Amino acid sequence: MPKVSQISTLIRLGCSSSRRLSNGFHFIARSYCTSDPAKTSGPLTSYSKLVEHGRLQHDPYQEKVASAFENLFGRLEHFEKEMEDYHLRLEEWEKKREEERRRLMVEEAEKKEEDGMWASMNKQGQKLLGRWVLGRRQMSVEPGVGKWVSYLNRERKLDSLVGSRPAIPQAPKGLYIYGNVGCGKTMLMDMFYGATDGMIRHRQRFHFHEAMLKINEQMHKYWKENGAEKSSQYSISSWIMNLPVDEKVKEWLAGEEFYKQQLTMKHILPAVADKFLVDKQSSKKGASVLCFDEIQTVDVFAIVALSGIMSRLLTTGTVLVATSNRAPRELNQDGMQKEIFDKFITKLEKRCEIISIGSEVDYRRVGAKNSVENVHYLWPLSNSVLEEFENLWRQVTDQYGGEVTSATLPVMFGRTVEVPESCNGVARFTFEYLCGRPLGAADYIAVAKSYHTIFISEIPAMSMEIRDKARRFITLVDELYNHHCCLVSSAETPIDELFQGTAEGTLFDLESFQFETETEDSRLRRDVLAEGSISAAGSPSSIVKMLSGEEEMFAFARAASRLIEMQTPLYLEGVRFLHPYFHQQK
């Protein structure tokens, strides 16, 4: 049984250590995301130095991937300059095209006025226009074939007057890395991501859950801004209402503008993609890099949203780096939205180099072998373990000072999650509280971002009887790991037996197992599909998650591997430097 002083020492080390590097790879690799740009070298150079200094075990598969990242890294600086020049030309082209579009519309309206088109219109038109401007109701405009033809003709004239859109520079091929649990995919991607700091202006790194939630949020925001009654009226009035023309002409112009907006609303995914990676703090545009950890396709929304947004990003010059446990063509084994998915994969294979890390070694376990005994994963659920858990909670909360209170965290879309006990970056929950209720990735991300040390008690052995809870627990572990939280827990079994099933049933029923859960975030995604009129045809389960037993086996293996690594002194050292809580305190 570990002593209280052992975990206290480790947590203090993680929260007050200076800049000491340890003999292992996790902290070293992930710290590249926050390293000093002036001191950052290329991915292969960094990898070679870590091997040379004994901080990494040499692996030929990892070295091959690091070399591919180095080649990509070497091309990015020139591509950034090309994209900066491209965006300047694009901005000028868009400005000129919009000026010409408005001029053409006014000319069309004036010609209609000369032809007497407005003669039959009465005062009702003025009332409609007044309501439009004041925002009391939306104008009802029937598009019709005539309006569509008019719109296309105008676009063709603009092409001839302004010229075609500037050509996008050829982007370097991205990388799609796949392989087994713990083989180093995320480590190598993080090395690359850290190396691009200061070089690439618009770059983002997402885990799957976080990316899907951001897509949800952006889509809802877009509908709110562009679909609400008052969303576009003032922008219309800013150039239409001040024109020295008849009111009937203004009404026609407003109708044409509204029709253009209706067409835009039908292409929401490209619109969301265009703002997905933009650095809001930077007014200057340039290249963009998206690092996507553990890409997967668990439901119809993921297929549709990822296909639409990723395809747009790849087409507009974004360099994609992705990791997964599967090759691209094996991602969608359930065949959901197959036509949409296949088009996306074809584009991905064209724009990315596909590399397999063939190593069978789980380096998280290798690193854990040289660590101290498990000091904060306590088992079994005996009286002595429960007492030890309580002692740890008291000592850690005393260490950080302050009163233990409840808290309410904002999640998204106005939702909140309650935290029963918390104290200065430390929080405590039961397994049932976090995984026995309809919570999802959004809730777990909110918790993981807010607390650097999290206590979870009474974790049971997983079985088919509690498979929904098991899947939520896996999502929870993913987010705690992604945000580099310190996890202290009490459980029924050791880690390697946690996901093996119980007398009530194994978790690996490959013939009949289909994981289906209706968590809060999946309901949100279902709402998004419904509001956006995105078809779920061909998938009877619609938005419900459908993961095969094989997929679950991989998820369980990944969770166990991460739980093991999260106990090591090496991992705990990174808490102080990598957790968002400490960045917010600066």
Automatic annotation (TrEMBL):
Family to which this protein belongs: Belongs to the AFG1 ATPase family.
Descriptive protein name: AFG1-like ATPase
UniProt entry keywords in alphabetical sequence: ATP-binding, Coiled coil, Nucleotide-binding
Molecular function (Gene Ontology), one example: ATP binding
Recorded coiled-coil stretches: 76-115
Gene3D superfamilies documented for this protein: P-loop containing nucleotide triphosphate hydrolases
GO CC, any one term: mitochondrion
